[in-house]
Amino acid sequence: MRTPAAYVRGVRHPEAFHGDGVTKGYFEGWYNKVVSADRMQRWAVIPGVFRGLGGAVGGDGRTTDEAFVQVLDGLTGRSWYHRYEVGEFAASDREFDVRVGPNRFSPAGMTLDLPQLRGEIAYSTPLEPWPVTAREPGIMGWYGLVPAMECFHGIVSFGHGLAGEIEVEGRPTSFDGGRGYLEKDWGKAFPAGYVWMASNHLDTEIGDGTDASLIASIAIIPWLGRAFRGSIIGLRHGGRLHRWTTYNRSKETRLSIDDTHVRWSVTGPDGVLELDAERVRGGLLHAPLRTAMHQRVEETLDASIAFRHLDHDGRVLLAGTAACAGLEVFGDTERLLAL
């Protein structure tokens, strides 16, 4: 069980490990995305840990407690899940510093020793997190202060530079001048239904997209025996983070999900945002249920998202296409839409 001091420290440091003292019914994972300068290499590397419900055993007779590193080739959709013993996992509860077996992740970069990826990618510029303040402790706002939330979310870096050469399936591959993105989740389990999308490769037709970044998610949120549809969107451009969230009373004016697109429009204090994400087939990633890590979430790093940000007078501030986008559509989307 976490101490009150550890809980407060965790609120102040979303990037750090939140699971010290938690022995069952818990997961935590860090999503590291790296894209080469020519955009021809797109990889997600996800280290983490999962603890099942008190001695639960999977179908192969092994305990469901495990550490892991997942790998997704965002161009081809291939994915791999590398399992490690829990004792091979270590992470700081004060900063972003994670080790799984011989693999290491920190603000300096990541060192990988995996069949698909070997070597070191350095982060050549500082990480750029979602600001953490007393009024808004990260992307979840005041909901991040509620211990009973099913799943917590944190943005460790909207974007940072990459440097270094690694072996990609045995071939030397440069990531010099590339761009990285880093977020994380922790808690009891993933939501029963959600949509998630993210890109920091925004090709603009209107406005300056230099260093622009988009993260958007909408999910079924259990709450006091019922559920509501909660959303968090951050669009960083022009030196400012623009927010559309449940906790700042932004409103959805459109949300539709079909086999080919996710179309989503919101209005709030920072104006109007229109998103039209094209769905493409991706690779299967493991995600935490309450009993085990299950291969169930299809994710791509090859989606494209048409976007428009308008002020309240209808003036377009930024518009274009977000490329190399991560996109997940999972679970009971009919219920999600009905809430």
UniProtKB/TrEMBL annotation:
GO molecular function: tocopherol cyclase activity
InterPro entries the UniProt entry points to: Tocopherol_cyclase (IPR025893)
Top-level lineage group: Bacteria
Protein name, as recorded: Tocopherol cyclase
